[in-house]
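Our consortium's second objective concerns turning raw sequence data into structural hypotheses that experimental partners can test. To show how far this objective has progressed, the report includes one record in full. It was chosen at random from the queue rather than selected for favorable results. The single chain below, 278 residues long, was entered without modification.
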Amino acid sequence: MLTSGRNEGGGERTMSAPTAIPYDSFIAEFYDYIPTVTVRRDLDFYLSGAREYGDPILELGCGTGRVLLPLAREGSNVAGLDISEAMLARCREKLAGEKDEVRRRVQLQCGDMTDFDLDVTFRLIIIPFRPFQHLLEVEQQLSCLRRAHRHLSPGGRLILDVFQTDAQRIHDPAFLKETPPLREINLPDGRKLVQTERTAAFHRAEQRNDVELIHYIKHPDGRQERLVFAFTLRYFFRFEVEHLLARTGFRVAELYGDFDRSPLLDDSPEMLFVAEKI
């Protein structure tokens, strides 16, 4: 749920947009510009996976099409599922600017990744950049994986991306403080955006952190806003994910620690599971 932050003075105001679907909020407008998204280095990894495992491809949590559209440009037939109408609206806007052959390769649908039935099977299903970590309950996680299993053709692959948990980030009070601002972003309409973040609360017994992504907006007329995108994120450990996959009919075929396909090590930032349907 989105929560309102404190006023910072100087005419600044804070937007509050409570919703059961956090991405149906201001974040959909800024998503493609924020540094946490633009510095992501995963596109080549997913493009390589598409070439290796084939299509059609289903992306769960496709958002604004950051991964989906490059896959379609390279020739893959891709279906995108997302629970946020606001994020899908941004994806459709971007898709409208693509060539006809790219548009023909893409199907978009609003839906819940824990409960969907597309009446088609896929060679590859991908869940890039954390949407699985918004599934807070074990039964939600199992339901998502069961649905993915059902929608894969025999021998098909699932690529699941979660971060490797940093022990300090689940207890160290230093992370409760707002980080230094990232670089200023010039938005197309003349506004300027600066993003920071903080952990709002630790819930170690539930393996969850409450997180805030804080956006400082400067308008051309001098007005300022402080917008807080607040959500809860579930963190995982390697063998926990392997057990979830095994319980839902998958075999871990490959496990990587980063998008260069390096092995999972103590200091790896990612846990990339390539799981085969069995």
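The partners drew two points from this record. Residues 40-165+236-277 form a domain with the Rossmann fold fold (CATH 3.40.50.150). Residues 1-19 have pLDDT under 50 and may be disordered. Both points have been shared with the crystallography group to help prioritize constructs.
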